[in-house]
Amino acid sequence: MDKILKNSWALFLGMGFIMMAYGFQGSLLGVRAVQEEFSLTSTGFMMSGYFVGYFIGAATIPNIISRVGHIRVFAAFASLSSLVILLHSILINPFIWFLLRVLTGISMVCIYTVAESWLNDRSSNKNRGSVLSIYMVVLYGSLGIGMFLLNFSSPLNFQPFILISVITSLALIPILLTKKKPPTFKKIKAMTLKDLYQASPFGVVSSFFYGTVQSALFTLLAVYATSMNFTILEISIVTFLLAISGSIAQFPVGKISDIYDRRRVIIFSTFASSIFAILSIMVSGQMYLPDGLATSKTWFYIFFILFSFCSLPMFSLILAHTNDYISKEKFVAAGAGLQFLFGLGAMSGPFLCSIFMDLVGSNGFFIFLAFFHSIIGFFGIYRMKVRKTVDNPDSQFVAMPQTITPAGIELNPTTEPIDEPIKEQNKSMG
Q: What is the spatial distance between Cα 293 and Cα 312, in angstroms, rounded to a whole number?
């Protein structure tokens, strides 16, 4: 453990600053959009820009890293992300914000890929699990801290945007000053969607719809809370609960999935998520009323924690389930394919969810979440009737962050490492 921290402290510190800024930014833009009286559809469209950019960046980043190296890519896109958030405070328009969110999405997936491929290079078969665990603690811990920074100043002021830019810029310092030699980037090929579907139809379908759910959840939660008259502190609390409860749930849910049929665990988790989403609506009551008249939010917090506990480990469950039906040497390729499908679904999530909210009100947010979770559950029941469970000794549950890239999937200790570099020119970047 000490050796891992010694070799990778600069990267962990840099990613801590990045995730702190990202957590702050996601909540800030949602709240500010409501205060600027953007329509719900415009807000959903604007927030979806991040995932459009994420999808574009995921397809282009390998070539960029192979040409100029990890350090330059990290520095360039962290700088771009720092600049973009400042532009949000100057150019206040839903369409312009959409374009800026696209740039943020491109920047973030580039940063994730750099970090995760770098960690892979610093890892061995013996310590990849430990490296992944530390990485997840850094990501979720920093994300939670960033969400509480929403209390720093009013979202209507320019100071929060400046603070996000400052925090993002701080991430550059440890990375640029590191003496460690950056790795050679490795090419990761995804399975074809046809091959992936033949191996695991449930994995393909559930990954796509889960991307739709998660993108809406993380981008519009602050919008929902603002529309329900939550205070800034309460918005910080509910977004913090989302990140932390979901990360805590990964390990107990994973242990259960290693004992029982993983499809049963996914089905139970997704239907439980739907139930807790509906219960969140039922207890929302008069939360939207002004202070003194509004109902207590205690039961809402409880049901939302339970919702997050059931929902957030699902990508890791889906990945492990898919691995149950393929050989070990295809684990990374299958993971890359599932991440592609997740991103494809994620692009539509915020926009579709905003339409639900426009049609039925703020609680359309939870109706949307319950509806798409249920689709996953019903398809899982169908698949259990047409395909028997298999026992693959090479496959086991490994907790993965929601933001994992194909490069990061290789941190899974059950995978076979990718050895072939794209190019050798990165060696000159010491």
A: 33
For residue 421, the SS3 value is strand
DSSP string, 127-187: THHHHHHHHHHHHHHHHHHHHHGGGSS-TTSSHHHHHHHHHHHHTHHHHHH--SPPPPPB-
Place of tokens 């409860």: 245
316-354 tens-digit pLDDT: 899 888 888 887 778 788 888 888 899 899 999 999 999
Indicate the pTM of the whole model.
0.87
Instruction: Please count the CA atoms within 13 angstroms of the CA of 391 that sit on its side-chain side.
Output: 2
C-alpha 153/C-alpha 161 separation (Å) is 10
Tokens of 201: 């139809």
Q: Which residue has the tokens 């290789």?
A: 410
The CA-CA-CA angle for residues 362, 247, 338, to 5°, reads 85
What does R_g of the chain's alpha carbons equal in angstroms? 21
Extract the residue ranges of the chain whose pLDDT is less than 70.
1-7, 125, 179-190, 286-295, 390-395, 416-430
**Within 13 Å, how many C-alpha atoms sit on residue 177's CB side?**
9
Specify the DSSP class assigned to residue 395: -
- For 123-134, how does the pLDDT look when each residue is reduced to its tens digit (9 = 90+)? 776 777 778 888
Closest by CA to 104, choosing from 85, 86, 89, 87, is 85
Per-residue pLDDT tens for 4-45?
A: 666 677 888 889 999 999 999 988 999 999 889 898 999 999
What does DSSP assign to residue 289?
S
Q: Which CATH architecture has domain 2-179+188-417?
A: Up-down Bundle (1.20)
